[in-house]
Write a structure and sequence with these properties.
single chain, about 180 residues, mainly alpha, Hypothetical protein af1432, 10 helices, about 60% helix, about 0% strand, globular
Length: about 180
C-alpha cells in the first residue's frame, strides 16, 4: 500500500485530530527507527501510521484494540509483517508477548510519542524544536508526568539494541522533522 492511500484510509477511520497527530508522529519515529536499524522505512512507516486505525471503532477498548485493526487491514494489500506488528502493539488484546524486532520497535516507538508530546507542552514556547532529548529521559523517571505513558513499553527500545537516551534523541529528532504537521 502506498503511503498516500494509507493516510486516506487512516482519515476514513480516525476522525479525532489528536489521534491522527499521534499516528503521524508514530510514523516519523518508526521511519527513523527503520533507518537506524537498516530496516524498510516505508514498511515501518506504514505500521506507525496505521497502528491505531481501529481506536475509534473499538472505543480504545484494550481487549479489542488492534484485533479490529487486523480485521480492517486484512482487506488491503498490506505486508503481513505490518499487520502482525500492528496487532502486537497491544499485547493485552492478543494474550501474547511481543517477540520480534518490528513488534518491539512499533510498541516502543508509538508509546514514546506521547511522552515527547507531553514534554513539549511543558516548554514555555510549546515547540518541539526547543525540546532536549535529555528532558524526555528525565520525564521518564517522573511517574506522575504523563502518567498514562507506559515507561516499560518505551524501554522495549533496549530489546532492539537502542539505549533509552539514544531512543529519546532519535524520537525527538524524528518529531522535529514533522513539527509543523503535528502542530508542534
Amino acid at each position: 500500500m502506498e503511503r498516500e492511500k494509507a493516510f486516506e484510509l487512516l482519515k476514513e477511520y480516525v476522525k479525532d485530530e489528536k489521534m491522527r497527530i499521534h499516528c503521524l508522529a508514530s510514523e516519523a519515529v518508526l521511519r527513523a527507527l527503520a533507518k537506524r536499524l537498516g530496516e524498510d522505512e516505508e514498511k515501518w512507516g506504514l505500521a506507525g501510521l496505521l497502528h491505531d486505525i481501529d481506536v475509534e471503532v473499538t472505543n480504545a477498548d484494550p481487549q479489542k484494540h488492534a484485533l479490529e485493526a487486523e480485521n480492517i487491514l486484512a482487506r488491503y494489500n498490506l505486508d503481513p509483517e505490518i499487520i502482525d506488528a500492528i496487532t502486537m502493539h497491544n499485547e493485552m488484546a492478543t494474550g501474547k508477548e511481543r517477540s520480534t524486532l518490528f513488534q518491539h520497535a512499533l510498541a516502543a516507538g508509538e508509546t514514546i510519542t506521547g511522552l515527547v508530546y507531553a514534554t513539549t507542552l511543558v516548554y514555555p514556547d510549546k515547540k518541539i524544536a526547543s525540546v532536549k532529548p535529555k528532558s524526555v529521559v528525565k520525564r521518564m523517571k517522573e511517574k506522575a508526568f504523563a502518567a498514562s505513558v507506559n515507561r516499560d513499553t518505551i524501554r522495549e527500545c533496549e530489546k532492539i539494541g537502542i539505549p533509552v537516551p539514544e531512543f529519546a534523541e532519535l524520537s525527538v529528532n524524528a518529531m522535529k522533522d514533522i513539527g509543523d504537521d503535528i502542530g508542534l
